[in-house]
Amino acid sequence: MNLSDFKGIWFLLGVAVAYGVLWGFDPHSGLKALEKSGTIVWSLLPIFALVILITALVNYFLKPARFVKHFGADSGKKGWFLSLASGVLSHGPMYAWYPMLQEMRERGIRDGYLVAFLYARSIKIPLLPLMVEYFGWLFTIVLTFYILLGSWLQGVVSDRIGSKGP
After folding, report:
1. The dihedral sign for the CA sequence 87, 88, 92, 93
2. CA torsion angle for 91, 7, 41, 60 (degrees, to 10)?
3. In this structure, are residues 120 and 81 in contact, taking their beta carbons and an 8 Å threshold?
4. Phi and psi for 6 in degrees, rounded to 5?
5. Residue 94 near residue 121 (C-beta atoms within 8 A)
6. Were both Cys, which of 20, 28, 61, 115 would link to 155 (CB 3.0–4.6 Å)?
């Protein structure tokens, strides 16, 4: 890979220039900022390693071909349930899911299931206790129900539109 192909190179160079300018005006503050950034990066390295490991394991064990058979044209309620449940249970940045979802789409998964999955991702299980604390059980349950209902309805509408796209 050519270094110029790395899209983050300009950001990296910009940050390096900013540290250099800060260092030029106030070496003590520049060093302090660099040390603080280093501490933050060092503390994030185990998290990055864990995310990379989990992503690699998911990509290795959870092949899209294994899932597509559960999301065929005749999968019915099971397909909707799996789409909604997997959307709720999925974690991590959305861009990490795009390649797998694209492959599943290319293998024949219905667009409605993908739409329902993406919509259902707005329910974050780790944040539900916090929502209950701030808004109460009733609000949390009703909102979660409406998000799931909306996920399903958006998926149905997407299927009715019927566009497979590129």
Report:
1. positive
2. 40
3. no
4. -75, 110
5. yes
6. 115
Q: CB-based contacts of 108: which residues, under 8 Å, 6+ apart?
A: 68, 71, 72
- Give every CB contact of residue 69 below 8 A, 6+ residues apart in sequence: none
Closest CA to 70 of 94, 104, 116, 36: 104
CA distance 16 to 67: 44
Give the DSSP H or E segment for 50: helix 27-61
CB 15, CB 33: distance < 8 Å: no
| Overall pTM > 0.85 | no
Q: 113 and 155 in contact (C-beta within 8 Å)?
A: yes
**Pairwise CA distance, residues 157 & 125, whole Å:** 26
Tens place of pLDDT per residue across the chain (166 aa):
565 666 678 888 888 898 899 889 999 988 898 899 889 888 888 877 887 787 677 667 766 666 666 676 677 888 899 889 888 888 778 888 888 888 888 888 888 999 999 999 999 888 888 888 899 999 999 999 999 999 999 999 998 887 555 4
Which two three-digit tokens encode residue 149?
């209902």
